[in-house]
Design a protein that fits this description.
Layout: E1 3-5, E2 12-14, E3 16-19, H1 30-42, E4 47-49, H2 58-68, E5 78-83, H3 98-112, E6 117-122, H4 131-144, E7 147-153, H5 157-169, E8 177-179, H6 193-199, E9 203-206, H7 233-238, H8 241-256, H9 261-269, E10 275-280, H10 285-292, H11 301-311
Parallel strand pairs: 3-4, 3-10, 4-5, 5-6, 6-7, 7-8, 8-9, 9-10
Antiparallel strand pairs: 1-2
Helix pairs in contact: 1-10, 2-3, 4-5, 5-6, 8-9, 8-11
Amino acid sequence: MHYRRVGKSGLKISEISLGSWLTYGGTVENQVAKECMNTAVEQGINFVDCAEIYAGGKAEEVIGEWLAEETVNRKDLVISSKVFWPTSQDINDWGNSRRNITNAIEGTLNRLNIDYLDLYYLHRYDHTTPVRETVETLDGLIRAGDVRYWGTSVWTAAQLERVQAVAKEIHAHRPIVEQPMYNMFSRHIEVEIMHVGKTHGMGFTVWSPLAQGLLTGKYNDGIPEGSRGSKSDMVKTLLTEENLSKVRKLGDIAKSLDITTSQLALAWILRRPEISAAIVGATRPQHVIESAGASDVELSAEALEQIEGVLDNRPQWPPTYEPNIYFEDKMRG
């Protein structure tokens, strides 16, 4: 496993990291989830990502149970969570206000059974709360020792510029990382967001690097019974014949390189030095092992050219953004 700095900070995380969205505390049995996390550590993965909204807090609880079993040293791990989405009907129980963040961090630390978070993300931008209030609150959490670093998730380039300017103005700790969706079929961040983040010394820990499983090749011959594609409208939207044809061609390239389609897709993401980590999901330990193997894959210029020829979707200016289905609150992720 190889490691990268998160932007210009001193924090180092594994190129392939483990996420818990749509898996732990929900569709994956707790014991299997713990086996996946143990396998991740064995593979050199040191970054585990979560959010208070994942499975209504149960994902954090599963990770907390795993940490309490003392099979790993918490100090060797980078643990993250996120705040923004509502967790109750209380009018103040959402967003990036001082009230919500200070309440949320307490619940997150209790569920994770830890004293501090290494990374705390703002899960979306809050148009109803002054940016200064949010930045002061995160700065306070860092000074109090509850959080080591903080970042953003699915923010626009303009929003990143704004928060960096406010943090600089009030001499507060700045966000060091953005967590956007990024994969071979979702490349909008390459045009503007990635440039702005890099300018301000931010790294990128990207989610859905395998496009909800599409880039594993498991849908090439149809939708397996019980798979996410058989249940999720978001996945079904991706399952077009054009996309599937591209995945099959990518599979041929992967085969010629003696790697899997998943490893090709992850190595393609890691080609960008702006990327700090690709966050993968896993429902079985074998999934973790396969994904971790991508860290050792370095794609040649020839292979990258072949991939671009298949994708034929290099972003252009002005940027076009992804359909709202990926970002609206019904996802909670």
